[in-house]
Structures are given as structure tokens and as C-alpha cells.
Amino acid sequence: MKQVEKQVLKKLMRRKIIGGKHTDIKNIYNIVPRHERKSASRVIKKLIVEKIILKKQTPYGTHISLNPKKIKEIIRRIEN
Fold first, then answer.
1. Structural domain tally of the chain?
2. In which band, very low, low, confident or very high, does the pLDDT at 77 lie, cut at 50, 70 and 90?
3. Whether residue 1 has pLDDT greater than 80
4. The domain that contains 44 carries what CATH number?
5. Is the pLDDT of residue 29 over 90?
6. Which is it for the CA torsion 30, 35, 39, 41, positive or negative?
7. From the CB of residue 27, how many other CB atoms can be counted at a distance below 10 Å?
8. Most buried by CB count within 10 Å: which residue of 4, 14, 58, 77?
């Protein structure tokens, strides 16, 4: 599960999906292998509760982005 968390956070950091820039949550599920999508869903929900990832409801679906106030913690999680 740690590996899936790192993949998700790395992808969002690499694409600079931070703060006002957001992406559809379905795009994140496409970066993990099919057999790990259920754990990816759990990881994303956990990160939303921890406020590492911000969730935004739009008329065309749920979008997510990284919390700009937690960038140092995100970098620490990626490196460990």
C-alpha cells in the first residue's frame, strides 16, 4: 500500500497538480495496475482524510489536487 501511495503522490507532483489545478480522480486510477486499483481507492480516501489531497466536486465529476500547505510532508512521503 505504501508503494501505491508513492505512485499516486509522485504522479500528482510530476504533473504539478497542486492547489487550484486539479485532475479527475479517474485519471489517478489509470496509473496503477488493475489488481491494485482497490488499494489505490483506499489510499486516495486515506490521503483525503489526512488532507494531503484536496477533493473538489465539479459538475462533471470528482477532482483532486495536492494540498499546497502540505508539500513538505508530501515530498517526505515520496522520498521514504
1. 1
2. very high
3. no
4. 1.10.10.10
5. no
6. positive
7. 14
8. 4
Which residue is associated with the grid cell 488493475?
A: 34
Beta bridge partners of 21: none
Q: Which domain holds residue 65?
A: 2-79
Burial class (CB in 10 A: 0-12, 13-18, 19+), 69: exposed
Task: Kindly report the number of other CB atoms within 10 A of residue 25's CB atom.
Answer: 17
pLDDT score recorded for residue 69: 95
- Interatomic CA distance for residues 15 and 39, integer angstroms: 22
DSSP state of 68: G
Residue 17 CB burial class (10 angstroms; 0-12, 13-18, ≥19): buried
The pTM for the full model equals 0.87
Rounded to whole angstroms, how far apart are CA atoms 29 and 38?
A: 9
